[in-house]
UniProtKB/TrEMBL annotation, chain A:
Keywords: Molybdenum, Oxidoreductase. It comes from the Bacteria. Signal peptide: none annotated. PANTHER family: ALDEHYDE OXIDASE 1-RELATED, XANTHINE DEHYDROGENASE. Gene3D superfamilies: Aldehyde oxidase/xanthine dehydrogenase, a/b hammerhead (3.90.1170.50), Aldehyde oxidase/xanthine dehydrogenase, molybdopterin binding domain (3.30.365.10). GO terms for molecular function: iron ion binding; oxidoreductase activity. Residues 21-141 form the Aldehyde oxidase/xanthine dehydrogenase a/b hammerhead domain. This is Molybdopterin-dependent oxidoreductase.
Automatic annotation (TrEMBL), chain B:
Transmembrane segments: none annotated. This is Carbon monoxide dehydrogenase. It comes from Bradyrhizobium cajani. Residues 1-170 form the FAD-binding PCMH-type domain. SMART domains: CO_deh_flav_C. Keywords: FAD, Flavoprotein, Oxidoreductase. InterPro entries: CO_DH_flav_C, CO_DH_flav_C_dom_sf, Diverse_Substr_Oxidored, FAD-bd_PCMH, FAD-bd_PCMH-like_sf, FAD-bd_PCMH_sub1, FAD-bd_PCMH_sub2, Mopterin_DH_FAD-bd. The lineage of its organism: Bacteria, Pseudomonadati, Pseudomonadota, Alphaproteobacteria, Hyphomicrobiales. Pfam families: FAD_binding_5 (PF00941). One of its GO terms (molecular function) is FAD binding. SUPFAM superfamilies: CO dehydrogenase flavoprotein C-terminal domain-like, FAD-binding/transporter-associated domain-like.
Length: 795, 265
């Protein structure tokens, strides 16, 4: 028999056995009898009117079964793809919410917008048929950048969205901020761009749909982070399929990073098509297709101002941002640059007044939505950059200015001026830990060594906090969420004492099958190997909101913890009867129910057996069976954070930035599995480094073509770009989650871009460089050096 | 990928016959360039003619003053060849910098040279060393072979069988990798012979080219400092989302200096 492996242990991940031996079950592995192949025909233009579609040649092509277009969608009276958040402007006027048809109707608004779906016997025939579809476009000028999109005379995406502005959103006390600025001894200003990113999960998106006429049921297999939400949005709002007639399965999914947490038109089209052609339909995206259809991330243009007194204390912070939404509102689109951005502008500092204005803007680009970190990396980048700018302008050390403004540990819970209240934290402790781990004391020696080789070395700090564990439903509802954000778990104890957990979060790389099993093993005292975690199937799992926003452990784990407590409570009742003792005298410890002060006890297995073989069982007061369910809705966000320190070397001859050292000391609350936490931190940091140094989605203004449309032109971070990282945790416990956990999925991505760019700016500061936009590519750095105030020493 | 016929002849004359008799048919060597274009449906040849059964196209031989590399020799074999490492270490280094291990195991020198990608590495080595391209019909000097963006002197039905490299006194290659593709954003091959120095640049423009002012100076003084002040004209150089022409021009000088350094070390 196996062992209990509990909270704090670091067993190898259960799920890796099947992944590493090629036994995963991904959507594209699934084959259904009579399956057909579908191909989406996508707009090659950024902006165009569809004058007509001639399907005849495509329909006549060998193997082609059907061609579906926007006209068919309209004829069937299907709904538009819904947006899950409705935000409003300062006057309470709701955002502009133009329809997002699952197949374009009349107009296309980005390269990749779906125009038609071709179904054939084989993928090859579907591709051949798709090439024969004749679409008559009247090409219109595209607008891809936010600055250009709000200019008078810019191409307009929607007739009823003037200046392409979806919403002019604001947060904070504008008047208080203005008055603080009037009193300021110094005002630091910074204009910056937060680059557009493409998620690139290892597995491209894919879907299969099947309709069974016998039961009138649909099944959709999809690469999703939240199958229940897809079932609700697609079934109830798009296709009018009753929830009990629709099963959504998200089996093994090869990475998400947010890209798979939206309801996509492809899912709706395929499900609808399966009934029309009366056969299962399968679609698997190519990598190139993913580039022009997976929702993109970030893409802000921002102006920020920080007011300080003469001692460097922050008095007020003002931020104006133009946020790119792309061609339509995606599932969470307008929520990201507003509710997940403005409330984070307080950071770990005591800034008393903050005002944030965000114009959410439509452009002829792929819709923009949540991507790992979602809003919070953008906020952290603005804040942590301007703190450095202010420090340098006022001649205050960058660490010192942070200390002077940091929220002291004793001040928690801390109410910020931008809605959120941090429950716990110790930013100073994280800072001190990171300073030591990064050997900042001896940085000067390392800098001199670099200089002797003609290289410039720089150090960058990011002391940050984020809000995750999405989310308290009541809070989210006030901000415009149209759904709840709780999580659910069912703990099913089998007659033999093994346990199956049904949970509403989705595991696609995070190690849930291990972490959640540790929680159950720890709490019930059952062997780790006796616990299986079931997720990703609306027929097997009661309900769930899925995995995003670092919520799985924080919200799902809490539901699991509560359900497990209920199992113990029921077990005590059974034990009280079997042991003929009062319920209050029953103790549960290490897998044993015992009567306090006696040696009489029943094992967990014995109680489970009695629950299902109730021969001698209190049927009058207790139902048979041992299965409990809990829903958990958090009372607050959780606020992980920490201090990241990046050390870079710049080669002035080529402009190349090399990341030499990276140190992160993060407060993620209770750590269930330190190995998994470390892995999440590593992965998150690498994604942030990717944004800071390499990744950039570039569109051609005018044509709307995506110029970085493949891995040949979109640079992902690679192993040889990275040093061995030092990551550690410095945890304070969350005061309101059942286990004190805070979440660790996004911290790395949130803290790191600012640390890296601050290091690059530090390396070049002696040349008068005060800011570098992301990504800090060699070409960009070289150009900055060309324009810098000092001549660059040649080798 | 659209369907195509597949042929695997074992005699060069059969290859030529197939190539000329099946219109738009294509040779396939390592397939590292060709297969992706088929998968993306960018090319639609009715037939592929696989060169892998032509045994005499593989291998490396030492002819004294020259080294001959068979067209079907994969990059990994060139990179690991003791012979190439000893006689033209800069060329072995160049082969080791191409793509990743999988690409180096499949991709061939003949395929790379025939394809003449403007950012490929081998064209810089072939032009920099003044190699001779040996084909099924004739011998073509490197200076007459590369004709610009994906263009070569190869005629319809002509097959590269080998590349013959003169052994230099010293040679070095330095590559500034394009961030995403890791092809050459700028790659410079420098070779010193008894009768002078050759400098060939790839990645910077629409095709590989020589830099006569650098060659002249280095022929007198084979030292990085000799060319530090030489500026490359940005005219005709490539500008794209990764690098503008003036940055590429600057990198040519930097990479050339480093290539000389590599040749000297
Ligand atoms: C991921 C990736 C990364 C890469 N990175 C680099 C890099 O960093 N640097 C670099 O230089 N290259 C790079 N390449 C290209 C690689 O070097 C290829 O090997 C090369 O471009 C083509 O060689 P091949 O043998 O695969 O040719 P194929 O793809 O088989 O053929 C290419 C073309 O040449 C023709 N051809 C092939 N052999 C002959 C012959 N003997 N005679 C006449 N015509 C012929 C074919 O008909 C075809 O048109 C990369 C490729 C990939 C996939």
């Amino acid at each position: 028999m196996g062992n209990v492996i509990g909270i704090g242990a670091a067993p190898k991940r259960k799920e890796d056995q099947r992944f590493l031996t090629g036994r995963g079950n991904y959507v594209s592995d699934i084959k259904r009898p009579g399956m057909t192949a579908g191909v989406f025909v996508r707009s090659p233009h950024g902006h165009a009117v569809i004058r007509g579609i001639d399907e005849s040649a495509a329909l006549a092509a060998p193997g082609v079964i059907a061609v579906l277009t926007g006209d068919d969608v309209k004829a069937d009276g299907l709904g538009s793809l819904p947006c899950g958040w409705g935000i409003s402007d300062a006057k309470g006027v709701p955002m502009k919410e133009p329809p997002f048809p699952m197949l374009a109707q009349g107009k296309v608004r980005f390269v990749g917008d779906m125009v038609a779906f071709v179904i054939a016997e084989t993928p090859e025939q579907a591709n051949a048929g798709a090439e024969l579809l004749k679409i008559d476009y009247e090409v219109l000028p595209s607008v891809v950048g936010v600055l250009e999109a709000v200019r008078p005379g810019a191409p307009q995406l929607f007739d009823d969205v003037p200046n392409n502005i979806c919403c002019d959103w604001e947060l904070g006390d504008k008047a208080a901020v203005e008055s603080a600025f009037r009193k300021a001894a110094h005002v630091a200003k910074l204009s910056l761009v937060n680059n557009r990113l493409i998620g690139n999960p290892m597995e491209p998106r894919a879907a299969i749909a099947e309709y069974e006429p016998g039961t009138d049921r649909f099944t959709l297999w999809t690469t999703s982070q939240f199958p229940h939400v897809v079932r609700f949005l697609m079934g109830a709002l798009v296709l009018n399929i009753p929830q009990h007639k629709l099963r959504v399965v998200a089996p093994d999914v090869g990475g998400g990073f947010g890209v798979k947490q939206f309801h996509y038109g492809e899912e709706a089209v395929i499900t609808w098509a399966a009934k029309r052609v009366k056969r299962p339909v399968k679609w698997v995206a190519s990598r190139s297709e993913g580039y022009v259809s997976d929702r993109h991330g970030r893409d802000h243009v921002t102006e920020a101002e920080l007011a300080l007194d003469e001692t460097g204390k922050f008095l007020a912070f003002r931020v104006k941002t133009l946020a790119n939404m792309g061609g339509y509102l995606s599932t969470f689109g307008p929520n990201i640059p507003t509710n997940l951005y403005g409330p984070l502008l307080g950071g770990v500092y005591t800034t008393p007044a903050i005002y944030c204005n965000v114009k959410v803007v439509f452009t002829n680009t792929v819709p923009v939505d949540a991507y790992r970190g979602a809003g919070r990396p953008e906020a952290t980048f603005v804040l942590e950059r301007i703190v450095d700018v202010a420090a340098s302008e006022m001649g205050i050390d960058r660490v010192e200015i942070r200390r002077r403004n940091m929220i002291p540990k004793e001040a928690y819970p801390y109410q910020t001026p931008v809605l959120v209240q941090y429950d716990s934290g110790d930013p100073m402790g994280c800072l001190d830990g990171a300073l030591a781990a990064a050997d900042v004391k001896n940085f000067g020696v390392r800098k001199a060594a670099s200089a002797s080789k003609g290289k410039f070395r720089g150090l960058g700090y990011s002391t940050y906090v984020e809000a995750c564990g999405l989310a308290p439903s009541r809070f989210a509802g006030r901000l415009g969420a149209r759904g709840g954000l709780y999580e659910s778990a069912t703990v099913r104890v089998h007659p033999t004492g093994q346990v199956t957990v049904m949970i509403g979060t989705h595991n696609h790389g995070q190690g849930h099958e291990t972490t959640f099993a540790q929680i159950v093993s720890d709490k019930l005292g059952v062997p780790f190997e006796n616990v299986d975690i079931v997720f990703g199937d609306t027929d097997r799992v009661q309900f769930g909101m899925g995995t995003y926003g670092s919520r799985s452990l924080v919200v799902g784990g809490a539901a699991l913890s509560k359900a497990t407590d209920k199992v113990i409570a029921k077990g005590k009742k059974i034990a009280s009867h079997l042991l003929e003792a009062a319920e209050v005298d029953i103790q549960f410890e290490s897998g044993k129910f015992s009567v306090a002060g006696t040696d009489r006890s029943k094992t967990f297995e014995e109680i489970a057996g009695a629950a299902y073989v109730p021969h001698n069982y209190p049927l009058e007061v207790l139902e048979p069976g041992l299965e409990e369910q809990a829903y958990y809705d958090p009372v607050n966000f959780t606020y992980p954070g920490g201090c990241h320190i990046a050390e870079v070397e710049v080669d002035p001859e080529t402009g190349t930035v090399t990341l030499i050292n990276y140190t992160a000391v993060d407060d993620v609350g209770t750590v269930i599995n330190p190995m998994i936490v470390e892995g999440q931190l590593h992965g998150g940091i690498v994604q942030g480094v990717g944004q800071a140094l390499f990744e950039n989605a570039v569109y051609d203004e005018g044509s709307g073509q995506l110029l970085s449309g493949s891995l040949m032109d979109y640079c992902m971070p690679r192993a040889d770009h990275l040093p061995m990282m030092k990551v550690a945790t410095h945890s304070t416990l969350c005061t309101h989650t059942p286990m004190g956990v805070k979440g660790c999925g996004e911290v790395g991505t949130i803290g790191s871009p600012a640390a890296v760019i601050n290091a690059v700016v530090d390396a070049l500061s002696h040349l008068g460089v005060t800011h570098v936009d992301m990504p800090a590519t060699p070409n960009r750095i070289w150009r900055l050096l060309q324009n810098a105030s000092l001549p660059v020493a040649a080798e | 990928m659209k369907p195509f016929a597949y042929h695997q002849p074992d005699q060069i004359p059969d290859v030529a016959k197939l190539l000329t008799s099946i219109e738009d048919s294509k040779l396939v060597a390592g397939g590292m360039t060709l297969i992706p274009t088929l998968k993306q449906r960018l090319a639609n040849p009715p037939a592929l003619i696989d060169l892998s059964k032509l045994g005499n196209l593989k291998g490396i031989s030492d002819d004294g003053a020259t080294i001959t590399i068979g067209a079907m020799t994969p990059h990994a074999v060139v990179a690991a060849s003791k012979l190439v490492q000893a006689r033209i270490p800069g060329l072995a280094a160049l082969a080791s910098m191409i793509g990743d291990p999988a690409v180096r195991s499949r991709g061939t020198i003949g395929g790379s040279v025939a394809n003449n990608d403007p950012a490929a590495d081998y064209p810089a080595g072939v032009l920099g060393l003044g190699a001779t391209i040996v084909t099924s019909m004739r011998e073509i000097p490197a200076d007459k072979f590369f004709l610009g963006l994906f263009e070569t002197a190869l005629q319809q039905g002509e097959i590269i069988t080998a590349i013959r490299f003169p052994v230099p006194q010293k040679a070095g290659y330095t590559k500034f990798k394009a961030p995403a593709s890791r092809y050459a954003l700028v790659g410079v091959f420098v070779a010193k012979f008894a009768d002078g120095v050759r400098v060939a640049v790839t990645g910077a423009g629409p095709g590989v080219f020589r830099v006569p002012p650098m060659e002249a100076v280095l022929s007198d003084n084979f030292d990085p400092s000799a060319i530090a002040a030489i500026k490359i004209d940005t005219d005709g150089l490539t500008s794209d989302i990764h690098a503008e022409a003036d940055y590429r021009a600057h990198l040519v000088t930097v990479m050339a200096k480093r290539a000389v350094d590599a040749a000297l070390s």
